[in-house]
Design brief:
The complex is a heterodimer. Chain A contains 18 helices and no strands. Chain A is an all-alpha fold. Chain A has one domain. Chain B folds into 2 domains: about 100 residues, no CATH class; about 70 residues, no CATH class. The chains are: A mainly alpha, B alpha+beta.
Chain lengths: ~425, ~200
Amino acid sequence: MADKSTSSSSLLMWLIDPVSPTGESAPGRYQFTADMRSWLFPTAFGVGLLILSLVALFTGDTQRFLFSYLIAWSFCLSIALGALFFVMVHNVTKAYWSTVLRRIAEAVAWSFPMLAILFIPIALGMYDLYHWSHAEVVDPASPEFDPIIDGKSPYLNEPFFFIRMAIYFMAWIIISYKLWTRSIASDVDHKPETNYNLRFTSAWGIPVYAVTLAFASMDLLMTLEPHWYSTIFGVYFFAGSFLGAIGLIILLTGLLQKRGGMLQQTVTTEHYHDLGKWLFALVAFWAYIATSQYMLLWYANIPETTVWYRVRLEGGWEHHATMLVLFHFVLPFLILLPRATKRYLPLLATMAGWMFVMHWFDIHWVTMPNAFLEGGFHWVDITVWLGLFGVFVGAIIYRLSRHSLVPHNDPYLQRSLEFENF
Amino acid sequence: MLNEFIREIKLSMGIFESNSDQTYGVLAEFSDPGALLDAARETRKAGYRHFDTHSPFPVHGMDKAMGLGQSKIGFIVFGGAIFGLALATWMQWWMGAVDYPLNISGKPFFSTEPSTPVMFEVTILFSALTAVAAMLAFNGLPRPYNPLFYSENFRRATDDSFFLHVGASDDLFDEEDTKDFLKSLGGYNIEEIKDLGEANATSD
């Protein structure tokens, strides 16, 4: 735990980074050397695009704006959740290859407080987003009355929805707070029990994370179609989350190294190779889960469960579905298959960026057809996405700039630096 | 021409020809995996190409030290995977729509959705079988007769000892020089192996 001297004062600062800067204590080669433009530029870019997107909000496209915002926010949330899992699973398995990348993943994972604040527009737009939140659908006297939603109303009601969101965020913030502050504290004053503590938090964190992630994905995205249910939906969301997080970790590390000249002789081709394996494995895992969901619902052929696919396979959305199969699975699978792709950074970074975009495309296809039966993109989809992501990644880079880029007192660091694939 | 080709293939599997005087090569023992790794690296550096190492367990980095290069198995497995995928697709279509069409709750006789698990599994099955077969082929296994079995000492290769063997077919091979060279690398129990061409020739 951070003591008084390393905890920050203002609330806004706490949301972005709860520990005061420790970067100076790091050896020179692990320090963040870029200037403030590195985080100011993406943040300003993001804020600019978000302001531009407000045009849509005030020109009558309120619902489109809110859906775009929900997609963009879920995208950022999924990346943060994926990074949190990356940290936890490598802590709990005592993985040493990933130690040089851990700080970057940890910085992505401490995004939950900011994301909780950014949830406010969704809370304000509940009526436009979630059909089940309408009072008349559970009112037997109303012509809008929907017996199915009425039956689900003990779970699907606004107060309980917000209570659940609060529980999810509390769980994620507690886990990531423990992981982030302890890891940073060990940079300044390394204690032998640090690794044990990180492992302990991760060990109970993973089951808590699994349940909260599954329920959160159902609450946020599945209940947009309140008649529909799929028990594998949480796993589907998780597959995309982890994929997106690996993509961001590859891109961030590559940028720090190639643009910023940092992490030289620290993150090597061997580490990129392993990140590439993760990326490849998750492309296949995503396809496996997506197929499992689709195949079972296709085979059962029950109207209440096929309705979700019905709206997603007509009105232009079927082209999105085809693109998902081709560009979220078939092509990346074949391109990432050879060893050479994973060991050649420009190509691996291209694939990371590609999967990153496809992950957003996937969430867009899952979310948007609930309200818009015509497929395709609105300009506000793109501006809100890039805007929110700009703010999200600006905060991550700012966080990284305050601390050592590598947990340099970690006992596994030397083995991580020497890591080789056999 | 064909014999030359077969010889090359056997060489790539680590099966070396013996000399005209039935000398198969020289075998040296090393104390630990690290010593074996260094010896392999030095042997490669000295210009030897027809040599092999034997240890009770895989030694990390040995392929690099021996200069074996990247394994080609992946490419062959990819072929096996494509074959499995094609076979499963054809099988699903032929059985469901051609040979024995059955109407099951009005579903199409053939469609990709229910065939996907079969296509996936058969792809995996053929990938795995191809991987095992290619691995055995590239290693020249199974190999029930190996002249190295004439060495009593060599039995410990499956237990607690580490061996390096230089084939007599190597261009640089010279009985005395190679023995001295292996000794200079820290090898001991250096012995010359004769290829007598018959199994169970050992005295016990």
